Amino acid sequence: MAWPSSYVPPGSMLALQQYLGLSSQTGKTKAHDPFSPSPLSRKQDVLFVALSLKTWTYDPERVAEVSLAILDTRGIQHLAPGTSGRGWFGEIERLRLVDKDLAELAKQDSGGVRLPGTEPRETKMLSREDMKALVRSVLRYGLHSERREKRKVLLVVHDQECQERLLWYLDEGAFKKTDVVFTADTQVYASEAGRGVSLARVMKTFHVKNGGRGSHGNDAVYVLQVLLGMVCLRTFEKKKFYQGRARLV
Questions:
Q1: Would you place residue 110 in the very low, low, confident or very high pLDDT band (cuts 50, 70, 90)?
Q2: Domain 12-248's class?
Q3: pLDDT, tens digit (0-9, with 9 covering 90-100), for 13-63
């Protein structure tokens, strides 16, 4: 499947609600209680995969770190979303990939200062090619590639630049074997005018607080939490959702 050209296709908010079981297939019935598992059937099982890429300070052409956060909708079928989706935060799997060659250079150049992301247990130090291979694998199978079960993926980014950087990093040919439904851009969902607002500001505006251990410093986790928070607000507290968007215009 070719990489989708639309970052936020028409009707995608409804599709997000359907994938998360917060809306019926017709869109006429919405879940009404955030503190009970939704009785509505999901559109399909998908993997929500959020990504964040950081380039190296000394060479912006080199990707130093890739942060990933994955939510499998199969794992939340019997869980209540809770306030701003926080009931699902504990199901988010996370991984940070660091270019081991750049990390070694950073140590040499800065007297032992490590690249961001080398501390958490979820971090893997890999060669550049192994990093790319693992990202490709996650986009096809999630974190459990040994099952060899190709999954539908809903990609989540905070802005269009992130996806463009990802395309440049992996090249478009890498996505021919993936099944990406569409890309959810949290920056566009947060501000109707498409105004460039920071991830931190979006989190503050929509009252999405960090939940789940180990997410400190992993921007992909924050991006996925923001998306879940906005979809839940749009479902259960529509007025607050639009008030938040108005503040970011």
A1: very low
A2: alpha beta
A3: 999 999 999 999 888 899 999 999 988 888 889 999 999 988 877 777 788
Encoded amino acid at 37, one letter: P
pLDDT of 114 higher than 50: no
**Domain residue spans in the chain?**
12-248
Amino acid sitting at position 141: Y
Contacts of 143 (CB under 8 A, 6+ apart): 70, 93, 95
70, 138 contact by CB (below 8 A): yes
Six token digits for residue 156: 């989540």
Distance, CA of 229 to CA of 243 (rounded, Å):
14
User: What are the structure tokens assigned to 169, written together?
Assistant: 């990093």
Phi and psi torsions of 206, nearest 5°: -95, 10
State whether residue 166 is helix, strand or coil: helix
